[in-house]
Amino acid sequence: MSPSRPYQPFLLRVLHGLTGLCLIVAILTAYWIYDTYDGRWGRVPLPTYREIQDIHGTFGLWTLLIFPAFVIYAFHRGQKRLIQPDSFGKLAQVGKPWWYTLNRVTNTLTLLALAFALFSGKMMDETWLPKGELTQAWYYAHLISWVVMVGAIALHLLINAKVGGASLLLSMLTWQFRDKDSPARWPVHLSLWWSAVRQGAWARWFQPITGTIVLEIVLLVSTVMAWIAPLAK
Question: I want to staple 128 with a disulfide (CB 3.0 to 4.6 A). Which of 9, 133, 171, 185 is the partner?
């Protein structure tokens, strides 16, 4: 690997890549669904494909399954890439470099937007659109979530390009990894982690309670609720 290229942990690249791939397909199919059944705010001449709703649901489901692992990684191993206690104070310091701070804030907002999209999607009924029920509150919420999601992804890419240029963006696409990041070591790391959990390490995970920990809990609880809440409809 070129020494001038930033290095990203391999597990981050795997989780980020899987989430991003499923999310992009989900966004594209979401627009196709809107174009097929709605189109009140404009449409393009896409072919009618009734099964597109099933494809969208499949990729949305895969994203939902990957999301908790991505959240846990982001708030622990990748916590420096997320919002910090002094982030908003630094953003208010006009005239000082704040692109890195803005990048952390945007990364965090992207996770929140994705959680909103996943939860609102699970709250929808797959029969609404085929039956022409276009005024359901959760349908509007899901539409808004995808608009927010597209904007968050655009900001995520633009700010990362500003912070690290093309080399930073390309560093997320390479399959090369260092020895310490080898997937062959993952079972050992998982075994050590589980051993620590059994010895009570989990009791220190949320001590002290900080805003970042609260945010992580909110995202994880929203994922659990995305599975449970539809059962009560």
Answer: 133
Spatial neighbors of 161 by CB under 8 A, at least 6 apart, are 168, 169
Full-model pTM: 0.87
Distances (CA, A) of 152 to 160, 206, 219: 12, 28, 16
Residue 164: CA atoms inside 13 Å, Cβ hemisphere, count?
17
Cβ(45)–Cβ(194) below 8 Å: no
Q: Residue 163: is its pLDDT beyond 90? A: no
Q: Contact at 8 Å (CB) between 183 and 141?
A: no
Q: Which residues contact 75 (CB under 8 A, 6 or more apart)?
A: 82, 212, 213, 215, 216
Q: What is the mean pLDDT of the chain?
A: 87
